[in-house]
Amino acid sequence: MKFLILGGGTQGSAAAYDLLRDDAVEEVVMADARSGQVHRALRPHLGGRLRTRVLDAESEGDVREAMAGTTGVLCALPYYFNYAMARLAVESGLHYTDLGGNTEIVLQQRSLDSAARAKGVSLVPDTGLAPGIVNVLAQAGIDELDETDSVRMWVGGLPRSPKPPLHYQIVYSLEGVLDYYVTPAVVLAEGWRTQVEALSGMEEVAFPEPVGRLEAFYTAGGISTMPRRYEGRIPVMEYKTLRYPGHAAIMRAVRDLGLLDEEAVDFGGARISPRKFFIDRVTPRLTNDRGDDMVVARVEVAGRRRGRDVRIRYDVVDYYDDATGLTAMARTTGFSLSITALLQAMGETAGTGTGTPDEAIPPARFLEELANRGIRVIRSERGPPVAQPPSFASHRYVETTT
Asked: Measured at the alpha carbon of residue 376, what is the angle toward residues 138 and 71, in degrees to the nearest 5?
């Protein structure tokens, strides 16, 4: 198996590191617009099974050349490249997966379904943490129930040592984070798709220490296309971002003051985008060179099994890995991407064509692979005990969400 990774940033580096742990992978090529030092976890592999190359993602010829001779393509570029990269991969007869995050682009990628089937390849967008892991968990819960009443997801990438005023550190593209703070989110309410304002729907969610109590609010992107898939079939489906208390109030004020607007304005004779200026000013203050982050995720699926009410919960808490220098966000997003690529190459996804993780990835197999990488999913439920898949660690719990 040979793989091309588009994008040599944090998530792309984590995916490359994970692929290189598999002896069946003959070669990994990591392509990026800039040449430079690779992540320290990858340095031992340079000159061996790992190659790097400079790539202009806006040049179709350059991209096609890079794709030649590979088994699959993993895209860790900014989301606006995803449709073009998927199209070129399908035309080249290659499996393709990306980190996604923009539902409108995923809907464009669905138009490639027939072409992917004709080429005999699998196209799986939206494969990271959220969207990605949480959607697979949601589907696992839905599959266990005879009737599903609600699906709720909460996800946060957080600093271990939060500092005021935002109690946040950059764990992936800040541009992407801010986009989620201004874009309306789509949920299912009474079974129908409904748009809700980003940063609204505030609630408190409690986790065991050392995480503690967090705030949660609606944001876009993380739920992927699941509301479309289950409209009219599941009454409630929603996704919320987790942050330390107080974060959302500050970001709402920043947004409402116009500092997250993208359109450039005249200032002192120059054209300046308020959002780009904001990102430039806050990035040094929100950057932690030590990493030292954590990822917190929870998925709850409620409904009935054999006539009895059941609520299934999946919890994930992952931390920065000092041994490799990979952040928790890089591990959960990058490893999800690489696992998907490996399953595609081995023919273990749901056939050919286009499908999001909840449609294309077998939950038990995926969670087994996460466990093999030290990303532990804790499954618990209220209701009669059932046999657990071997990849789940199981315990019963007392409701703590308010």
From this structure: 75
